[in-house]
Amino acid sequence: MVRVRGLHKSYGPLEVLRGVDLDVPAGSVTVVLGPSGSGKSTLLRTINHLEKLDRGHVAIDGELIGYRRSGDKLYELKEREVLRQRTGIGFVFQNFNLFPHLTVLENLVEAPVAALRRPKAAARAAALALLERVGLADKAAAYPRQLSGGQQQRVAIARALALEPKVLLFDEPTSALDPELVGEVLDVLKDLARSGTTMIVVTHEIGFAREVADTVVFMDGGVVVEQGPPAEVLDRPRHERTRAFLAKVL
Ligand code: ADP
Ligand code: MG
Question: What are the φ/ψ torsions at residue 106 (nearest 5 degrees)?
Answer without folding.
Answer: -65, -35
